[in-house]
Amino acid sequence: MLPPGAPPVPVSTLPPAPECVELAARIEEAFKGKVKAAKAMNPLNPGIQKELNVFVDVATDHKALPDLWRWLRDKEGFDHCSLVVAIDHMDRIEVKHLLFSYTSHITVETSATLDRIDPLMPSASLAWRGANWLEREQFDLMGVKFVDHPDLRRVLLPDDWIGHPLRKDYEFRQAGEWW
Amino acid sequence: MWINIGPQHPSTHGLWDLRIKVNGEVIVDSDPQVGYLHRSVEKICERKEFIMAMPMTERLCYVANMNWTHLYVHAVEKLMNVEVPDRAKWIRVMVCEMNRVASHLFWLGAFVHDIGNLTMFLWPIREREYVLDLLEYITGARMMYNYPRIGGQVKDVDDKFLRRSKVVMDMILERTFEYEKMLDESDMFGVRTKGVGVIDRAMAKNAGLTGPALRACGVDFDVRKATPYWAYGEVDFEVPVYDEGDCFARYRVRLEEIRESCKIVKQCADRMPEGEFIGKAPRVAPKTYAWVRHEDPRGESMCFIMGTGGKNAYRVKFRSPAFVNISALPIMLLGYKIPDVPAVMGSIDVCIGEVDR
Predict the structure, then answer these.
(1) Which of A66, B19, B162, B175 has CA 20 to 30 A from B54's CA?
(2) How far is A30 from chain B (nearest CA, A)?
(3) Which chain B residues contact residue A45 at CB under 8 A?
(4) Which helix (H) or strand (E) holds A108?
(5) How many Å apart are CA B79 and CA B95, to the nearest integer?
(6) Does A18-147 carry CATH code 3.30.460.80?
(7) Contact B288/B307 with Cβ under 8 angstroms?
(8) Between chains, do A5 and B280 touch, taking CB under 8 Å as contact?
(9) Strands A145-146, A53-59: pairing kind
(10) Domain locations in chain A as residue ranges
(11) pLDDT tens digits for A52-97?
(12) What are the chain A neighbours of B205 within 8 Å (beta carbons)?
């Protein structure tokens, strides 16, 4: 229930920053036909924190992702992999990699859609070593298999744990659990 | 030969295990093992309402919990598109910086204790008490504050707090010069930290190091400066950067950050605007997602949050800076000897609560 007098939640219509628009255009040009969409995002709450965000959607075609990551790292100076997050949408799994540049302060978000039964995708840890443990964590808790990951083991849970707890259909204390 | 340092070892500062492979006394490989403290905070946050999940986010790091709750609250506010009143922004900057001072002081005590300087273990802990007293005065708790709310703060600060915090920050500023004398002029401390755990700039960026550990490698990056949030754009402070990339540089960066944070707190106390300290906020979030990036005492912390259209979140993800910094330990330790391990482990400032989540 909304408290009385609370404002309705508006969807952001503010224009994106020009450098983000340019970067999105460069990605579109370099990876024409390989990425589904590359667009600069509208800032959500710019009065609190400055936002420079570019969204790249590769949908279910992940073959261009390693090239895209290496291109971003070498040509555009994205030298930091900030965050890897997998989201269970019940019918599919979405994996987002948030990449950051220390020079232009832009965040590029690459989004890949995976099959929920057999979630396979390429690994960013060959481009950034910092993505290694972030991807291991998503494998551990969400079951995403990063195929060319150098060291894909569980990181937070014990090695003999069954299931991936952050999946929406994970049942707590399920049969076969080791305690 | 593989040697386990931990899970119960005085220099691990929490429950984690560093397996190192040695050839004689030289480290040739290492493999950190974490997860002993995994509580699945992200899953718990999905099941609770936004306001109910806030105390959980505090338990992420017991040393810098003010920063973690504010991170979560900021993410929820961004998701709901809530505007925060000016006074609340300044209060947030003030309490987060006080918490940073307390966190760095605690780190300093623990780090030099690992190195073997037991006098310096007591000094920063003594000063940290004053900061905890101040935070207790406004929040009522010494450790788990639960101070912010969605749209503002739960309680206003008063003039006595502002006056008192200036006095305490002046005192800490003065005492940091005593720490400096005690440590910089100590040969023993220099031998144990200078040239130990070196990581070069390109590798540090690639390995995902953030925060003081990255600034000790010569990268001039601070989220508070680069993409300022709340009132950080209006306060005057500097970002300490060192080029050496060793344990001593990390200690220097943190020591100078204490001074900069003291300066920020004093400015906040002087320039605290009048007005409301909490605004109106809805209880439901739209079906979209948002993330925020903050400067935690340990590095770059992020919170990713996705709404369901209802009162709770669909997916919450925390990026813990210490988690990624631990994963860079094998690079820092390669080629050093076993006596260097406590110095390197201590210098990246791990907090196992946020690593294991």
Answers:
(1) B162
(2) 24
(3) 77-78, 81-82, 290
(4) strand A107-114
(5) 23
(6) yes
(7) yes
(8) yes
(9) unpaired
(10) 18-147
(11) 777 777 777 788 888 888 888 888 888 889 899 998 888 888 898 9
(12) 79-80, 102
